[in-house]
Amino acid sequence: MALSDLRRDMVLSAIEEYDKLGRGAFLKAYGYGPARDYFLLYDGKRYDSKAIAGVAHRGVDGRPLRADDFSGGDATVARTLSDLGFEVTRPSDVIDGHSPGSLLQKILTLKTAASVSPGARKRHQPLALLWALGRAARRDDRLVPWPDASPALESLLREFGHPGDGLNAEFPVLRLYHHGLWDLPGHNDVPTASGSAAQSWMRQNQPLSGLRSWVHDLVADQPAIRAQIVLRLLDGYFHDVDHDKLLAATLLIPEPNAIRPALDEVTPPRDGTPTPTRRTVTTSRVIRDSALAEQVKLLHDYQCQICGTRLMTGRGPYAEGAHIRPLGMPHNGPDEPGNLLCLCPNHHVLFDGGTISISEDLVAVDVSTGKPITQLRLAEGHTPAPQHLAYHRRVFADPQI
Ligand SMILES: [Zn+2]
């Protein structure tokens, strides 16, 4: 195969197909994993560059390349696309302008060290970021004195880090500083994140630190961006951790007023109304979702993934976190982002009741007729897991399960 035969129009037609199918279906159809470092930027959107180049290759000899057909590395692909006049991000890129895109790019290119746990990455930086995201969500002070920040980070590392990776809170802060996400105002002699010199520098300076102000402002003002980062960190580093426990520990939990009880649950005022001798108890439609579901809803800005409705109530926007494979017996679905959809109450009921299922290509389907209803709406950073969708389809194809 020769990437050098690619032409710009072939790449554009692959981009068109990517747009039509959606990211998940496109990658799956051609056997690619999600890109980590190299993205093609086109028309304000990001595309997995290797998958695009591989599919574009169909224009050369009629055959799209699969991921393992490539002999060159990702950098070769990036160079080929750049040569064709496309913009491609690179791991070390500092993208001009402090945009959500440049922030997400930095999150995707964190340089984390290998953990002592086989196959895992150290969780120091992700935990420091989650801690800071929780502070930004609550609009706490951006900068925290080291004598306060250090024990808070250590306690997170103790509870959620890989055992044996160490509890040094200095290193993640220094790494994040050099990666452009963390601020140590007033210091321009910040050492690199290794060795005892780094630790003694922190001990001597006891600096104020926190997210860079543009990062802090962005994640404080834009809950959907914050949620996208939270879900990416959970997905990238914390597969075997109880997500709700971690979100609670980093205070990434719903605002108290967002979980205020529904009106029909509030005890009626004692205003002399005769107490009824019998009271009918009704079930409230307000579903108190987990902290994890709240992040998924924030990411979708409370828009239903099937119909796009965003219900506005007196208490703010409202949507429900729908588990694809139900929690609890006998289904035992996991509470993880890939097992959640953000749905309006109507579609939640129809989905849970098996009137609607989601196909492999992420199309909502009427189960009784098999007819497609609509393409599932996706948001960057959250993909429903194919195995959970398949489970949901199986359950309703065979109600004996
Ligand atoms: Zn809906």
TrEMBL record:
Region (Disordered), start-end ranges: 262-281
Superkingdom of origin: Bacteria
InterPro entries recorded: DNA-SBD_ScoMcrA, HNH_nuc, ScoMcrA_N
Low complexity bias locations: 269-281
Domain HNH nuclease, residue spans: 292-349
Name this protein carries in UniProt: HNH nuclease domain-containing protein
Species whose genome carries this gene: Sphaerisporangium siamense
